[in-house]
Write a structure and sequence with these properties.
elongated
Length: about 80
């Protein structure tokens, strides 16, 4: 099913929906606001397929909603 575009509407909520995109992106934003930071953690929490999650994160970055921080390595595990 194709999503409806809200681009022509003069409403702040419609503008936010146009930026966010879809339900997967909204779940990603929720988890980021709750403190999840790693790709694997976001994927496990939302149940989003890998390709979908990568696409939504790229969309959110290009919209200026989220910022990507690269880490040198994962912290060592006990």
């Amino acid at each position: 099913m194709k999503s409806k575009s809200f681009a022509g509407m003069r409403c702040s909520i419609a503008g936010a929906l146009e930026l966010i995109g879809d339900r997967w992106a909204l779940l990603v934003i929720r988890d980021l606001s709750l403190g999840l930071r790693r790709y694997d953690d976001l994927r496990a929490s939302t149940g989003t397929p890998a390709a979908t999650l990568a696409a939504r994160l790229k969309h959110l970055m290009s919209s200026g909603i989220v910022e990507r921080l690269r880490y040198q390595e994962r912290p060592p595990r006990d």
